[in-house]
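User: Structure please.
Assistant: Input sequence and predicted structure:
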Amino acid sequence: MSRAFRLDEASIMLSRTPGILNALLLGAPDEWTMNDNGDGSWSPWAVVGHMLHGEENEWIPRARIILEHGEDVPFEPFDREAMFEQYAGIPLPELLDRFATARQSNLDDLRAFGLASIHLSLRGTHPTLGPVTLSNLLATWVAHDFNHVSQIVEVMARHYKDAVGPWVENLPILTREA
C-alpha cells in the first residue's frame, strides 16, 4: 500500500541507509563488492559511488533550487554513471565513510530548511520529467535508497545462484531480470 509523503518518516529512513550499507559491505570480500552480474549491472562498489554522487549533486542541491527558484531554474541533469570516473580507485570503505558523512550533512541541511507542509507542494523543473514537487523529490530520495540497497543485495545473492542447486526455483532474487 502506498503512503502519503511524511518528512519525519523520510528523515528517519534516510538516516538508516549508511548503517545498512556498512552492515552489508564493510569487511565483505572484494569478490562480493567489486563484481557485478554483467549485462550492465553495477557492483556494490558502483552502487555506493552512485549514491554518494547523488548525495553530493542531486537531492539537497535540487531541494535548494525548488526552495529558492521554484520552476524558474531547471535542475541540472544528473550523470547516473559519474561514479566510474569520479571515484575510480577509491576503496569501498572510504566511499562508505564519505557517503555517511555526506548523508549526515544533507540531513542536517534538510532540518535547517525548517520545512512546513506548505513547502512540500513547491514545484521545480526536472530536465526530463518536467514539473515535480519538493515532496516528490524527497520521496524519491527515500525510494532511491531502497532501490539501490535492493540492487546491492541482489548482486550479492547471485554469487550463490549455482550453489543453491534446485532451490533456485524458490528464490526469485536469483532469477528475475535485472
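The beta strands are 123-126, 130-133.
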